[in-house]
Specification:
Blueprint (H helix, E strand, L loop, with lengths): L1 H5 L6 E2 L6 E2 L1 E4 L2 E4 L5 H11 L2 H10 L9 E2 L6 H11 L2 E2 L4 E3 L2 E3 L10 H10 L2 H6 L2 H10 L4 H6 L6 H15 L14 H5 L12 H18 L4 H11 L8 H13 L5 H4 E3 L6 E3 L9 H12 L15 H11 L6 H6 L19 H7 L1 H13 L10 H10 L4 H27 L6 H17 L19 H10 L2 H6 L2 H10 L4 H6 L6 H15 L14 H5 L12 H18 L4 H10 E4 L2 E4 L2 H14 L4 H4 E3 L6 E3 L9 H12 L15 H11 L6 H6 L19 H7 L1 H13 L10 H10 L4 H28 L5 H17 L17 H15 L7 E3 L7 H7 L8 E6 L13 E2 L3 E5 L4 E4 L7 E12 L4 E8 L4 E8 L4 H5 L9 E7 L2 E7 L29 H4 L1
Parallel strand pairs: 5-6, 15-16
Antiparallel strand pairs: 1-2, 3-4, 7-8, 9-10, 11-12, 13-14, 16-24, 17-18, 18-20, 19-20, 20-21, 21-22, 22-23, 23-24
Helix pairs in contact: 7-16, 11-13, 11-15, 16-21, 19-22, 21-22, 25-34, 29-31, 29-33, 34-39, 36-37, 37-40, 38-39, 39-40
């Protein structure tokens, strides 16, 4: 647009006073073009939208301008003319006002009707079913968060009418008090009091009026700190053109300052220059940056009524209990005296507990005989609990006044909140359902509820004073394992995800307990059984076959396992850490305390008590395994520091000792686990199971007592199924292997068992990267074969061997390209190469050096063959692209005209003028020209074959069936229909590319993506032409 404007191809709207011109407004993928109403402007705009640069952008990004969804609008232009131009542009006719990015443009926002979308959105989000089913805490949370998205967007640009604000506040108020349909409920606290800040006695909801004013005031701040912004210049230019007064929405924004001044808020005094006069500072925030929150809070403090005391809000207590506590402190519960004051007819005004006195909040929570008995039980639990309070205020003052710190205060307030919550719930249960609990039971309910709330806030988490030799004291850890390794995760995660979770599940409480206490073997066995069942996808109610013994699974990868590690070795290694710290931290306070409290020395014999007895006992257990900590930890020769022998940096790590314990205590394997970072974890585990012959083949199922209808291989249905047969010997597998051997000539096709087959895959490749690529292709082959086996066995779906090979190629390509960061992909690999790619990257190197980037090339003389013969002769089932090199022949030795006739078949005749071929990188450079030719048979009849040829300096030719619709042609059978072909001609050589329509993959950005990426496939695929064919 800048180039079009500078070239006078497109004229925007010019602001006369400043010379500013507006031509396009953009946000993400939405754009508005603004310009003078002329036919030339419209025609030039269409040229811009259809330009080659924009087409390149569309191909690379996948985004395309949809004119049928676009609209054309005219300002002060006759409607007939707008319709005429809209039809010419093939777009819709728009009108003003319109909506852009969710905002109405051109509408009168001073009218309440323009705000109907906001009101409707409030009603939909604060719906009646939510009011009926959510608790008071849930409704409070929803009210605070409901103004997201469109609401804030409107409030940040438009001044809302008072009628709209009243409607929105009414919706929020009715929702908070739980009003459903047309039923009215008592609003126990005035809404203005609920809106105010918690420090002022409210719930911190905040008024919508203050939010609207604060968001509009933001523009006054931005006007100061962004003096050179484009938006400011445009607004100033429009304002100056109308006698300096702002119009439209900006007029209401300008008036915000006057409205705030009526409440004593002067924005000019809140936005002041910095000390160095290089910027501006906002006085309501310590960091000096404007925030809507600070101004909104300031406005609410002025316009909403204030209370004498703050709202008591206890962290860790549920929101509904905090709202209940707020109502208790304000005497706004539906006690009998409060209901009578509000005109509600009641059968009796007596207390539901004692029946003898009139019910009030002070009586229920302080003076009632039932409450006093409950308080007596609580005072035996915590001796500070007041038992003689006569009112709620006395009771809370006694609870709050004796705290000795922030933690003690939090605990006291939590128990107080639990007291009010449980007692009121018991009152309601007795009133409405007749349920009666004894005072001791009520006190126990308060204790348990307070404990649950406090436990969520206190992070200590370690049992103190308990006997950790008992398995029952490890129940919290067992429960945590069950919650983290839950049933839904076992059902939805892949086996790779379950492996990752098994390795990481011992976070927080698990490692914390293991680092201080020696776990009972019963506990270790329970935890390991949970991990084993979860890893194999089983649940508490559904058992699954564990295909490998868990001891073989958890051992290290160097020992044939998956490297999970045993919990027993983790526990021992964590406890052994204290022996290291004891040596390296000789002056630490903790060591002196432990020695004083738990260590007694008598004639050099140490007697240890408590938990440290078990910690020191670990050293003996390790010695029984053949691990001597005194040998692994020793002083350097100069005595300056301690050395740990298992790490190169000579510092103790739990990982190194745990690995050593696992190697000694777990059974060993004859081979290492094959594991590659280039493929997903689930495929690595699959390969591990294949090499250990632990897949669910039918012979393995029969060995484990599973009843099956047949033992035949699902792929060939002729031989009993076992691992070697499915992966190597099956006829389907052998055909797929033969096809792949045409792609890579080292592919094993004659092996009879999986071990020999995998050994040959591992040996291929000249260097480390080629070996890794071979490894990935082999894994992709096994994965694809097993997937096809399962699809046919369970769903009856069938894929031919060609489709399986294509899956192997594309799957291996996807895995390799994400890991081969330092290798370059050959131009056109896995894509239909562009004309420029074929000329620059294949043909020219061949002419200049006699070589070209490795790919599938056949040297064929083009004019000795009919196009149909080429497609049939060189068709490869596993490939979807073919390239041919052919010499070029002139008609006359000294002439420039190429030979067009073919041997016995006919000739090619030109049907279209030449067009230039541009380089993909330097789009201004022409690398060749292109002309269209049709193939005529020996009787000079024009056939369905069409080519595109570029004469000099190089030629690109494309053969397609003449006159056939692309979509119809693309769906024809690949074996009987004509094929597309690309021929690159040069003075010395032709490069001929053939691709069958039926095997063509979905269209990808030509020349983009991986074509010039530094990220995709690899040099290894082409470093050895003979090896990689």
């Amino acid at each position: 647009m800048k180039e079009a404007r500078s070239s006078n191809l497109f004229k925007g709207v010019r602001l006369d006073s400043t010379g500013e011109e507006v031509s396009i407004l953009q946000f993400a993928d939405d754009a508005i073009f603004v310009g003078e109403w002329t036919m030339d402007n419209a025609m030039n705009l269409m040229r811009i939208l259809k330009s080659r640069i924009l087409k390149c952008f569309e191909l690379c990004s996948g985004l395309r301008i949809n004119l049928s969804k676009s609209s054309l609008m005219g300002v002060s232009v006759p409607k007939e003319e707008v319709q005429k131009v809209a039809r010419w542009l093939n777009c819709k006719e728009g009108s003003i006002p319109f909506t852009y990015l969710g905002l109405p443009v051109g509408d009168n926002m001073a009218k309440a009707s323009a705000w109907q979308p906001i009101i409707d959105k409030f009603k939909s989000r604060l719906s009646l079913w939510k009011a009926k089913h959510l608790s008071a805490g849930g409704r409070l949370c929803l009210i605070k968060s409901v103004l997201g998205g469109l609401g804030n967007y409107f409030f940040s640009l438009y001044k809302a009418p008072n009628k709209v604000l009243s409607s929105l506040e009414s919706i929020r108020r009715r929702f908070f008090w739980g009003e459903v349909n047309q039923s009215r409920k008592i609003n126990w606290v005035a809404w203005n009091k609920a809106l105010r800040d918690k420090k002022s006695g409210g719930l911190g909801i905040g008024s919508l009026k203050a939010l609207n004013l604060a968001m509009l005031s933001k523009w006054h701040w931005r006007e100061k700190v962004e003096p050179n912004a484009k938006w400011k210049h445009v607004i100033s230019a429009i304002s100056e053109s109308i006698n300096g007064s702002r119009i439209g929405v900006w007029k209401s924004i300008q008036r915000i300052g006057r409205e705030l001044e009526a409440w004593g808020i002067n924005l000019q005094n809140l936005i002041i220059p910095n000390e160095d006069n290089r910027g501006w500072s906002w006085q309501l925030d310590d960091n000096g940056e404007f925030s809507v929150r600070s101004l909104r809070k300031f406005i609410d403090c002025l316009i909403l009524p204030s209370a004498d005391s703050e709202t008591i809000w206890v962290k860790g207590v549920t929101s509904k209990a905090n709202v209940h506590l707020w109502r208790v402190m304000n005497n706004r519960l539906p006690t009998m005296d409060n209901l009578i004051k509000r005109g509600v007819l009641v059968n009796s005004d007596g207390c539901k507990f004692c029946i003898s006195n009139q019910e009030s909040a002070d009586h229920v929570f302080a003076a009632c005989s039932t409450t006093k008995t409950v308080s007596a039980y609580l005072s035996n639990w915590v001796n500070w609990w007041p038992t003689s309070a006569r009112s709620i205020s006395d009771l809370w003052e006694s609870i709050d006044s004796g705290s000795s710190g922030s933690l003690d205060r939090m605990i006291r307030r939590t128990i107080g909140a639990a007291f009010f919550w449980v007692l009121w719930n018991q009152r309601n249960n007795k009133t409405f359902s007749g349920a009666v609990k004894k005072e001791r039971e009520i006190a126990e309910d308060i204790k348990f509820l307070a404990y649950d709330w406090i436990r969520g806030r206190v992070k200590a988490g370690l049992p103190v004073g308990g006997n950790m030799n008992r398995a029952s004291n490890w129940k919290p850890l067992i429960d945590k394992f069950k919650s983290k390794l839950s049933t839904w995760k076992a059902k939805t995660l892949s086996i790779g995800g379950r492996l990752c979770l098994c390795k990481s599940v011992l976070g927080s409480l698990g490692i914390y307990l293991f680092s201080l206490y020696k776990a009972h073997m019963k506990v270790i066995n329970i935890l390991e059984s949970h991990r084993c069942r979860f890893f194999w996808g089983g649940t508490d109610n559904q058992k699954k076959i564990c295909w490998m013994a868990w001891e073989n699974v958890i051992r290290d990868k160097s020992c044939g396992g998956l490297g999970i590690g045993s919990l027993c070795s983790l526990n021992m290694a964590l406890l052994a850490k204290w022996r290291w710290r004891e040596r390296t931290e000789t002056d630490a306070i903790w060591l002196k305390v432990v020695q004083h409290c738990n260590l007694e020395t008598d004639n050099h014999n140490r007697r240890i008590k408590g938990v440290w007895d078990r910690i020191y006992a670990v050293e003996k257990e390790l010695r029984d395994l053949g691990i001597n900590l005194d040998t692994l930890m020793h002083l350097e020769d100069d005595g300056s520091r301690w050395v740990w022998e298992l790490e190169a940096n000579q510092t103790f790590t739990v990982r190194s000792l745990r690995k050593m314990i696992d190697v000694i205590s777990l059974p060993l394997s004859n081979q290492d686990t094959e594991w590659s970072k280039w493929i997903p974890s689930k495929v690595n585990i699959f390969l591990w199971r294949v090499l250990n012959k632990r897949l669910a083949t039918r012979d393995n199922l029969q060995k484990r007592g599973v009843t099956i209808t047949t033992d035949l291989c699902p792929l060939c249905m002729s031989t009993s199924e076992n691992m070697d047969h499915v992966m190597v010997s099956c006829s389907t597998t052998k055909i797929a292997s033969a096809i792949l051997s045409n792609w890579i000539n080292w592919w094993p096709v004659n092996e009879i068992n999986i071990e020999d087959w995998w050994r040959k895959v591992q040996r291929s490749g000249a260097d480390k990267t080629q070996k890794q690529v071979s490894w990935v292709i082999g894994a992709a082959f096994l994965w694809s074969i097993w997937e096809q086996r399962n699809r046919k066995a369970f769903n009856g779906e069938f894929k031919n061997e060609q489709a399986i090979c294509r899956d192997v190629q594309f799957l291996s390509f996807d895995w390799i390209r994400s890991r081969a960061k330092g290798y370059n992909l050959h131009p056109g690999y896995k894509f239909l190469p562009s004309d420029s790619d074929l000329i620059v990257h294949y043909l020219k190197p061949k002419i200049a050096t006699g070589t070209h980037p490795p790919c599938r090339l056949h040297e064929v003389y083009l004019y000795d063959h009919h196009p149909q013969q080429l497609s049939e002769t060189y068709r490869a089932a596993s490939e979807n692209k073919w390239y041919f090199l052919t010499p070029r022949v002139r008609i006359y030795p000294k002439g420039s005209r190429p030979k067009r006739s073919t041997k016995e078949f006919g000739r090619w005749k030109q049907t279209q003028k030449c067009t230039p071929v541009y380089d993909d990188v330097n789009t201004q450079m022409v690398v060749g020209k292109r002309a269209s030719l049709a193939f005529h048979d020996d009787k000079d009849h024009k056939t369905e074959w069409l080519i595109h040829e570029t004469p000099t300096p190089s030629t690109v030719t494309t053969i397609v069936p003449n006159g056939t619709p692309p979509q119809q042609w693309l769906t024809q059978n690949a074996f009987t229909s004509p094929y597309s072909a690309v021929v690159i001609l040069h003075d010395a050589l032709h490069l001929f590319f053939l691709q069958p329509p039926a095997l063509r993959r979905p269209t990808l950005p030509a020349g983009g993506g991986y074509l010039r990426s530094s990220n995709p496939l690899l040099r290894a695929l082409g470093s050895d032409t003979n090896c990689w064919n």
